[in-house]
Specification:
Layout (H helix, E strand, L loop, with lengths): L1 E2 L2 E2 H25 L10 E2 L2 E2 L7 H29 L8 H24 L11 H17 L1 H7 L2 H24 L8
Antiparallel strand pairs: 1-2, 3-4
Helix pairs in contact: 1-2, 1-3, 1-6, 2-3, 3-4, 4-5
Bound molecules: cytidine-5'-triphosphate (CTP) and magnesium ion.
Amino acid sequence: MELFDVDVFEVMVVAVWAMLPAYVPNNIAVLTGGGAPIDGGRTWNGRRLLGNGKTWRGTIAGIAAGAVLAWGLNAVRQGVTDALNVSLPAFPIAVVLAMPAGAMLGDMAASFLKRRTGRARGASFPGVDQLDFVVMALLFTSLSAPEWTLDTFTLPVLTVVVLVTPLLHLITNVIAYVLGLKNEPW
Ligand code: CTP
Ligand code: MG
């Protein structure tokens, strides 16, 4: 399907492919989280800095998983490119780490904002919950590999990322909730 000269299938595949190292860290953090919170229990104006939902274990495992995934995607890139007949970007080494790290930091920044606005751990913050990690992952990525980011995240790809991410986020969180891995479906 073509829309304004854009191959919609190709754009969607590239968008999901390029964002995978940012999508996976949060889900791995849900599976591995627990133990010491990053803020060490510290508070600011009587409210937790980040809260018990942001742990060292979940954060480190999430970043590591995202990096390993990006590495793995590089390894299978040619095969997937041939199979789908879509030209997929390889992840530069700087992006392999920057993208998952940015995603986790974005999630953390959202928790910081939630606590400042009086939201308890697990409270929803529509909009922020769905896109926090996208914004920070892309910021980190653009700082570590500016040209690669501009080449990969073209306007059509960015548009798909912003539209599709909240949907993927909702679907994975509802699945995690139904499986009993997560306390809330957001
Ligand atoms: N998690 C973690 N470390 C992170 C992010 C998530 O350990 N950096 C784990 C925690 O066990 C957390 C769960 O994944 O409870 C769900 O993540 P999330 O929804 O981001 O946290 P919430 O518990 O909802 O807390 P918040 O309100 O701060 O988002
Ligand atoms: Mg939550």
